[in-house]
Amino acid sequence: LVNRVARLLLDQVDPGAILCVTYTKAAAAEMQARLFDQLGGWAVLDDETLSEKVAELDGRDPKTLDGQALSRARKLFARSLETPGGLKIQTIHAFCEKLLRRFPLEAGVSPRFTVLEDQAATALSHSAREDLARAAVAAPDGPIGLAYSHFAVELDWQRFQALLSMIEAKRADLLDYIDRAEAGTAPDPYALTGAEPGRSPEELEHDFVAWIDPAEWNRMAEAMETGSTNDRKIADAMSVAAPPHAGFAALAGVFCTQAGEPRKSMGTKSAPQGAVGWLLDLQTKFLATREALRKARIADDTIKVLTLARAHAAFYEAAKAQRGALDFPDLVARAAALLTRSGAAAWVLYKLDGGVDHVLIDEAQDTAPEQWAIVRALTGEFYSGQTSGRTVFAVGDEKQSIYSFQGARPERLRQERADFLTLAEGAGEPFAGPELNTSYRSTEEVLAFVDAVFADPDRTRALTGPQGDIARHIPARIGQHGAIDLWPLFLDEPAPETDAWDDPVDQESVGSARKRLARDLAREIRRQVESGLAVFDSRTRELRPAGYGDYIALVRRRDATFEEIIRALKTEGVPVAGADRLKLSSHIVFDDLIALARFALFPDDDLSLAEVLRSPLCDVDED
């Protein structure tokens, strides 16, 4: 993208008419730094060197560049710096924020709204959990109270918190489904599961048990007693599950095995065949009711999840509204609505038209559908049929899509490519879709491993949709080898009861899977560095001995494994940067500093003074 921007500037495109959209702030900063470094270098090069640089960028003969062209190239750095507002190299969220601040009334947002960073949004969302719990306690017999108490009983604490985390992560999708289901454009939970609307699981169980004639049941149980040993076992199970007192769950002992599978036979030849036939018919009805019960429970649980999701979202939205804040998904959603669905969309696009002539999209595989809607709205006039030289430039690789949890759909990249091709052909504009199949980063072994992963047709369809093949990349670093090491899974092993009686009950053993994984990882890193393992230096384009700074340990989440790895690295003497983020409010040092600040502000606060004296700041003992 940097070279593309440089070529546009060489073609005398106004810097303010270029919009570069990246996925992260770090990528935006890196792109701007690389561009300014390139343009700044041009400003001080001699004519011959500058001609070669510019010609290489444009793929032309250096001799075709005259003094005027070189003069323009040297001025690009100053021209870019002097552009009002600077070059628009920003994340999609930064662009949406500026758009909403420019058109707050049209977007229906406060002109002075604040943007919640991820940590602030998470804290506010967790606060909404507390509001949800309070609402459940305040009205235990209401929809929220019943849903909350149901999952609080059915799930343990960790699984319940995981459910709430899922509700937070899928908030937009869940609310969208609720709206569509209520509007009749999407099947409701009953239709999705095939359950009978309006009938609860409790009603199904009660109706089936009430349908059985207790007297008939007892007669058949007595008849089965006259059969073989297996028949008498069924009779015993019938005595235990005798309706109406035993309930529906107890009937499974009669009609199913201990594994929950239906009995293949309800009696032997020694049993009265009338009783066996009666039980077979009842078994068929029981299994049908059990299946209906399963569907009803899924539908009921789904409705309860949606109830909690809607309530949690309402509390979260109320908290944001109280603070006049928008989170990152809000920025994209409101901007997309402003440009595509609001009554002022045409007016906003008219005001924006002419301000952006070239849109460049980095990491296009991670662009979510709503973000594509913004791009389509901004570039709609590019293909109005009037030749204008306005362009869209996107770079992406489906295999590198890692932001599905934020709405990214890698298959959307090919769909958008096909749609833009149709638009360009309809407007008589040129379209190019070159495939960049040469990889300058990875080695042959790494690329072959990736190709093997996506050799599965199901994985391919997940990225490309129903049609299309995964691009195979060719390494540029021929003769330089890489490696993929797959370690065996570390499993906890049962330990003998040799711990001290006063050890904490949740204390991990020294041989736990987590500790062994962290220890082996730290030792392997140290071994590789001390043995002089060769790594490729991207700056010198040569091999050199590995250093500790060449290693990065990626984990799925910041849990105990994350902390254990850092601890093991330090134990093995491996230099480590540690956690790149620290939640101060959860650290005991923070509490000590707060106590010190309270005492400094209020010298008569004896409790704070005592806390400071007993803390490591003063380390005064009780005596």
Strand content: 5-15%
Using DSSP, what is the number of strands?
Answer: 10
The name CATH uses for the topology of the largest domain is: Rossmann fold
Q: Largest sheet, if any?
A: 4 strands, parallel
CATH superfamily grouping of the largest domain: P-loop containing nucleotide triphosphate hydrolases
Whole-number radius of gyration?
33 Å
Uncertain spans: none
Question: What kind of oligomer do you see?
Answer: single chain
User: What value does the average pLDDT take?
Assistant: 86
What's the domain count? 5
- Strand order in space, largest sheet: 2-1-5-6
- The shape, in one word, is globular
In DSSP terms (H or I, runs of 4 or more residues), the helix count works out at 26
Distance between the termini: 68 Å
The second-level CATH architecture of the largest domain is: 3-Layer(aba) Sandwich
Structural class by secondary-structure content: mainly alpha
> What is the helix fraction of residues, given as a range?
40-55%
Produce a short descriptive summary.
With 623 residues, the chain is mainly α. It has helices at residues 2-10, 25-42, 47-58, 67-81, 92-102, 104-107, 118-138, 143-154, 157-169, 171-183, 189-193, 201-211, 214-224, 229-240, 252-255, 273-323, 328-340, 345-352, 369-379, 411-427, 444-453, 457-464, 513-530, 560-571, 588-601, 606-614, and strands at residues 18-22, 88-91, 114-115, 325-326, 358-361, 391-394, 438-439, 474-475, 534-537, 542-545.
